[in-house]
Amino acid sequence: MKLRNISTTLLILVTLGLAGPAFAEKIGVTFQGDQALENAISASLKGDGHEIVDISSAARGARLDSVAAASIGKSTGAQIIVSGKKLGSVIVIKVLSTKNDTVAGGTCPAGNNGAAADTVKKILSDNKAKMTR
């Protein structure tokens, strides 16, 4: 009888583990002047099981800092905001938690949307614990 309870519990845990990624947050993505990059990153994150939240109207004209991120999160439901812009030959990426003051960032070569998506995923992975507190 004990073995059956353990097997059932194990089966439930495995099923929940396979149901989605361990870090599936509601993420808003905004990139100044580069809709193609914004779409590529959103699609990549969505493909990994994250829910993409439209923050375009809330983020328009906002200087994205921790206060603005909290406000945008409150109005849109986004838990994390990915933002950035192209500066010459580099894309500067900033990832902000709307729950706390956590901000992380990185860079990647401009013109490589795949590298930008990978950089965002790495930033999220490296800062998971801080972002979700």
On the 0 to 100 scale, the average pLDDT is 84
Which series of helices and strands comes N to C?
HEHEHHEEEHH
Strand content: 15-25%
The proportion of residues forming helix, as a percent range, comes to 40-55%
Termini separation comes to: 39 Å
The class by helix and strand makeup works out as: alpha/beta
Description of the molecule:
The protein contains six helices and five strands. The chain is an alpha/beta fold and 133 residues long. Strands 2-1-3-4-5 form a five-stranded mixed sheet.
Secondary structure elements and their pairing?
Blueprint: H1 2-19, E1 26-32, H2 35-47, E2 51-53, H3 56-59, H4 66-76, E3 80-87, E4 90-97, E5 103-109, H5 113-126, H6 128-132
Parallel strand pairs: 1-2, 1-3
Antiparallel strand pairs: 3-4, 4-5
Short synopsis of the structure:
The protein is an alpha/beta fold. It is built from 6 helices and 5 strands; from the N terminus they run H-E-H-E-H-H-E-E-E-H-H.
